[in-house]
């Protein structure tokens, strides 16, 4: 059996998402977001987050992140983020491009969470000094890049520091649903009630084809986002095809159900890994991703058995395993079985 733990974007899309696109493809609708489905999505998100908000649909997570940062940061500003963050490492300097040259400053912190003490020091670094790039925004990832999840208190610790310094806070929620299910709180509690100004509400990894929503809670930041999106080439003329995906994603709790499946498969995987001698869990998974270190030869063995996952870039034996809404239980069991067999043989 071929099973992949490479990423959650190896999975396709949920049936109802495609069905919704098929339905939206019938008949005519006004272009560029002036259609009924797009309006409905804004209403649905407003109900979900229990507040008035603005929504800008885009088709990639990178676009959602960098347009959000563009709305928060002048070109001479800096964005404070974790040194392992996606915006800093995996977006090909799109943040710099879309902000017109703002600098990303990586801050360390355990489990890929920004260390509040280090953040505080940088927040006030050379404020008002015309020779220095000005701290302008904070961006954090929920789920983080190593699969940990900020608690509500940890979020508050970051946003309180940012607010005190007058900086808006962006949340990269590429795995928002996975984090939410892990914390068991409400969407409002994990965002605007915790001091988040703009959220990249990811959906692609968890069931849509290509649909992400920039959700703006602090509406004073929405002013120029529509222009930025168009100028950046991300205003889809057939917006309803994107919005229909998001509508299906938000209908009947699909987004929660998908995230619950992904997270529970990770819990099963992690429990299994913990029973295998020689396997070290580097960061305990709280959502649907785990980093661990395999004993020598295990990666090769599992790869030969047709399991795929990423390794080889984080140090000797370190691998990343990610589950998705499509990860089958039998696949997880087969993986654990095969890993155990390897250890017993050696
Ligand atoms: C996947 C991901 C994104 C979005 O990536 P795209 O490929 O541009 O959709 C953003 N942030 C994090 C943390 C991610 O894992």
Characterise the protein shown here.
The chain has 346 residues and is of the alpha/beta class. The chain contains 13 helices and 13 strands. The strands form three sheets. A seven-stranded mixed beta sheet has the order 2-8-7-6-5-3-4, sandwiched between helices. Helix 2 packs parallel to helix 10 and helix 11 packs parallel to helix 13. The longest helix has 21 residues. The radius of gyration is 21 Å and the shape is globular. The two termini are 23 Å apart. The mean pLDDT is 97. It binds pyridoxal-5'-phosphate. Pyridoxal-5'-phosphate binds next to helix 3. Its cofactor is pyridoxal 5'-phosphate. Pfam families: Beta_elim_lyase. This is L-threonine aldolase.
Kindly report the spatial arrangement of strands forming the biggest sheet: 2-8-7-6-5-3-4
The top-level CATH class of the largest domain is Alpha Beta
Radius of gyration: 21 Å
What fold name stands as the CATH topology of the largest domain?
A: Aspartate Aminotransferase, domain 2
Helix proportion range: 40-55%
Number of strands: 13
At the fourth level of CATH, the homologous superfamily of the largest domain is Type I PLP-dependent aspartate aminotransferase-like (Major domain)
| SSE class | alpha/beta
Bound molecules: pyridoxal-5'-phosphate
In round numbers, the mean pLDDT is 97
Q: What order do the helices and strands follow?
A: EHHEHEHHEHEHEHEEHHHEEHEEEH
Range of strand content: 15-25%
Instruction: Please report the distance between the alpha carbons of the first and last residues.
Output: 23 Å
CATH architecture of the largest domain: 3-Layer(aba) Sandwich
């Amino acid at each position: 059996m071929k099973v992949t733990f490479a990423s959650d974007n190896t999975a396709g899309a949920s049936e109802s998402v495609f069905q919704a696109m098929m339905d939206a493809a019938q008949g005519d609708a006004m272009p560029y977001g002036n259609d009924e489905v797009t309006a409905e999505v804004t209403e649905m998100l407003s109900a979900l987050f229990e507040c008035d908000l603005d929504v800008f649909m885009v088709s990639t997570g990178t676009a959602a992140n960098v347009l959000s940062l563009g709305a928060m940061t002048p070109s001479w500003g800096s964005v404070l983020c974790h040194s392992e963050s996606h915006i800093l490492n995996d977006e090909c300097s799109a943040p710099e491009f879309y902000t017109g040259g703002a600098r990303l400053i990586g801050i360390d912190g355990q489990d890929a969470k920004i260390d509040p003490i280090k953040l505080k020091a940088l927040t006030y670094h050379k404020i008002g000094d015309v020779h220095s790039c000005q701290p302008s925004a904070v961006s954090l990832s929920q789920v983080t890049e190593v699969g940990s999840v900020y608690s509500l208190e940890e979020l508050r610790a970051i946003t309180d520091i940012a607010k005190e310094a007058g900086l808006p806070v962006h949340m990269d929620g590429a795995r928002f649903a996975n984090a939410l299910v892990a914390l068991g709180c409400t969407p409002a509690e994990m965002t605007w009630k915790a001091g988040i100004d703009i959220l990249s509400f990811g959906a692609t990894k968890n069931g849509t084809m290509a649909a992400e929503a920039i959700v703006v809670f602090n509406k004073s930041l929405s002013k120029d986002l529509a222009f930025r999106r168009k100028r950046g080439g991300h205003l889809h003329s057939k917006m309803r095809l994107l919005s229909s995906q998001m509508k299906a994603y938000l209908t009947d709790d699909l987004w929660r159900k998908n995230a619950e499946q992904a997270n529970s498969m990770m819990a099963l995987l992690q429990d299994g890994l913990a029973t295998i001698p020689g396997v070290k869990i580097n960061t305990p998974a709280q959502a649907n991703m785990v980093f661990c270190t395999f004993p020598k030869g295990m990666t090769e063995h599992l790869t030969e058995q047709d399991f795929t996952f990423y390794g080889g870039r984080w140090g000797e034996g370190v691998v990343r395993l990610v589950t998705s809404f499509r990860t089958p239980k039998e696949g997880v069991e087969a993986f654990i079985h095969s890993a155990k067999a390897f250890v017993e043989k050696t």
